[in-house]
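Deviations from the work plan: none for this task. Representative record:
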Amino acid sequence: MEDNKKKSTPPKKRADKGPNQRLRQRTAVLIILILIVGFGATLLRLSFLTMVQGSELQEKAVNQQLSDTVLTAKRGSIYDAKGTTLAESASVWQVVLAPINFENDEQRQAAAKGLSEILGLDYENVLEKTKQQNYYTVVKRKVEVEQRDQVMELQEKLTKDYDCGAVIQLLDDYKRYYPKDDLASCVIGFTGADEQGLEGVEYKYDDYLSGTPGRIVTAKNARGTNMPFQFEQNVESEDGKNIYLTIDEGIQSICEKHMAQAIIDNNVLNRGVCIAMDVNTGAILAMVTANGYNLNDPYTLPAETMLKIKELPENEQDAEESKSLAAMWRNKCVADTYMPGSVFKMCTASMALEEGKITDSSRFTCGGYMRVEDYDIGCSVTSGHGTQTFLESFCHSCNPAFIQIGQLVGIDKFRDYYTAFGFSEKSGIDLPGEADDSFWPEGQMGLVDLAVASFGQNFNITPLSMITACAAVCNGGYVLQPYVVSKITDSKGNVVKTMEKKVKRQVISNETSKKMCDMLAAYPEVNGASGGYVAGYKTGGKTGTSEKIGVEKKQSSFEKDYISSFCGIAPTDDPQIALLVFLDTPDGGAYYGSQIAAPIFINIMTELLPYLEVKTDYSDEDLAYLNVSMGDYTTLSVDEALKKAEADGFIATIIGTGSTVLSQIPQVSSQVAAGSNVVLYTEGNQPEKVTVPSFIGCAAYEANSVALQAGLNVSYSGAVSSGGVAVAQSIAEGAEVPRGTVVSVTFAANTSDGNSD
Amino acid sequence: MAPNRKLLYKGDVNRIYDDEYKASQAAKKEKLFIRPSRQRKMKNAKWFGIGMGIDLPFCIILLVLLTIGTIMMFSASYAFAYYTQNDSYYFLIRQLIFVVVGIIAMGVMSFFNYNKLHKIAPLVLGIAYVCLLAVLVLPAGDGGVKRWIPLGMFNIQPSEIAKFAVILFFAHWASKYYDKMQLAKFSVLPGIIVFGSIAMLLFLEPHYSGIVIIGMLTVLMLYIGGMKTKYLLIGGVILGGLVLVLAVTGGLSYAMSRMDGWGQALEYTTEEMWQTTWQTRNSLYAIGSGGLWGLGLGQSRQKYLYLPEPQNDFIFAIVVEELGLIGAAIILLIFALLVWRGITLSLRSKDKFGKLLGIGLTSQIGIQVVLNILVITDWLPNTGISLPFFSYGGSSLIMLLAQMGIVLSISRTANIERQ
């Protein structure tokens, strides 16, 4: 103790100034360290995190806190002009498990029991799935809405009763249905796995069809379940718009039927095109790329194509398959170009008329060929057409005459009109993949080029632009923007958008157009069935046979590959509809447009015009070969029946001795030629048998008399008048049939005649 | 002798007391607890009722902090309580009980003559050692960590007792040997012995943040107690060396595993790191989400199970998320005011023991606040330092409030001085 005191004495001196002083100083240091340095550092750090890194951190926080559920919008439907459904979507769901989130067997069993009951699955099977260790196990696909609701209830129950995290998920699943399979496949297109439009209207109008997906933004706790209080933001999904096409299913199927037949009949190698357009509005009534494909199964190639692919070396198969698929999906009407050939003469003629280069006294001489600079350009009639009027030149489809007409127009004007008709621009149709034309660049078009261009050779345009020009030629000269969608409605049916007729410009005057209609009308009158003559209707048109130039490899067995086309209008006194048909590379018996394209035009128009309720206007010749409807003579007495049949213009033959007609051949309402036989049976006796003769090669009147002689009746179809000959009969020659049976005989243009193009 | 001293050193009551203390030390047979009847006879040795009143500003600041802290603890724990206890008020109800008990403890302690602690300082240290040893014997808690002594309703954390014991012991030591503190054997040596032994025990728990805080408190107490500044540096080197040795021997594996993701909470590259840094990362998300003004009281989203145990060490992240930088700065300011007021009033204490004890106890608050916030902001590794008056926890809150009661008790003598 004493030592301590002594030892403590020396420092005491210094401490006299005060240990308190030292304590105060050291406390000041302490305060600086804790309050200034320490608290300063924390405040600095907090400021940095909240103010500088704040938004970045907040974003990350929000990302983990918010669960963003996308509400898929239902894709809109596609309807034809009359409201027939062409494409529609149905909602279904996928039930998916995230089995790794199960914590114990109790949860697994509860989930498996619930799911198996709701979805009608095997309990053990589902339980097996709940035991897997992954985040995605599909339990069932294509679950309908009632089951989905039950699954949602189950989810809540599992969370509540078993404290499950996010174990069951419901994912949107959709299926797009195309009720008409391959109808208008090149126009409608199809959708991909995520319901995105890939082709056609499905692609072009994807924004309208797909609608706006909605969102449910919910705050989730770290377990993935909702936070207990309201923290939810809903953005309703907006279903896709419905699209109404200008395409009429009736017209479309008529066109498709005849195109498909033509493809088979003429062994067409590169498919065919058929477009029907309302000439006054530019609305596309039918658009066919034959053959189409099944929209419900767009990735399946035709069997014969697959066989060809299978023959290729294995390493080329995939590439070839995708190439074939792309070709199959390609809309030839807008995506491919061709040389219009003689069809283009309607444009050349319009130019000359509009420019006043043609007078009543204009004459064009054809010596079978025409020399332009160093080239001799031949005519289809090698002996030449001699001296012709303007109309004759057109009806003869005389190339030398049109070279002269083209020269009258001149290179510059020709180019101007070419542009004005809309060939050099995209038509603006609401379909994807429209091709550009190929024409001589400005200043590079020579006289030889003008010569061949005047009859549609050596430049390429799309089929669509050809029919658009044709519409302009006959509708008063207005170049229209073609379109396939007429209106767009929302899911409740309110019209959102209506497509209006859009006139781009007037290329020729009304008068010129009127004259052109008369010229187009004259063509079938002069050329009959090979010129597209349709009995009972005022049709007009122009054939075309264009050589394919610049093809890599000749495909057909002809000397060259050809495109046979026909572009026509109806009725010519008040044009309503334009129709373009073309067959790319026919490899059958013939390749001239007059031989193979004109009959398609006739067949389609024969069905189409009654469908459109266009007034008939039969010539005397037409009337002679018009089918009539067989009357009903059964249950009548023999006398009455005979009287009635005579009045109806049929020749009645009574078989049997009864007093009342029990049955008749042909049956009631059968379509038969006027003056046909009708055999009336008064007893239940066996019908008398006769042998069917051959009608092939007969003209219509011959066919009827052959039939009457054989005790049969004919029903006319095809190009009966205007020089058509029978090319097919519905019952084969030599068959034994009951007397009075109707044989349907199909007539077509006489292919042995000289061709006008 | 004593009166002379008193004259020489004005206001240094300690002197007189020291003599009395030495006298009592000499009489070793003297009972530790003195009967109340004898209290009143001992003028300067009353157990209760010394001085006039407590320091009102300090008390108000403290109660404001406690109120804010309890409200924020409720807000932060609300969702966690809902999910884990199925009762949103689970933590609030318990914390309120601790607050009540703590305030009673504080009130009692504010009337307690802190000078009596002088006498029992070594005993308190001894109790701390017993607790630190006991916890090692008891079964381990979560993750093999032995930090808690279960006592029915609430648990006792021996490191909390150790912190107090260290402050108290060195206040006792430095005031007793105030004129010898410049000598290493009176300052550095006891420092090393006390801290070293406690650190060893804490290391076995393990409880590294406890080691850090007790180390800092030891240095702080020795520094203000008069230790030569140069020993500070030597002490620093020894501490660093110790950590290094432990690191080399692999004994720091637990802490190291927690430090793996230190400073990389946002740049996780592996699934393991993602898990390791989960708490810190979500703390940063919460702080960042707060921005300047915060999402509003009760509007935290990170407390919905993203930030694990948001009512504990990471509560301040939720505070920043809800109240923003502004709110956080205000709370920090109130803490700073508390520390400032606590230290200044302690300096006005009549005796050296009171000064040292008061400064030590209030500094502990400041140190813990700073360390806690640096942990939740990923500037320090995540080792478990609670935020005074905010973090949920019975023993630490009651302990803290009792300690604040001692500071208030000290403020009574300071008031006497002013009068």
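DSSP finds 16 helices and two strands in chain B.
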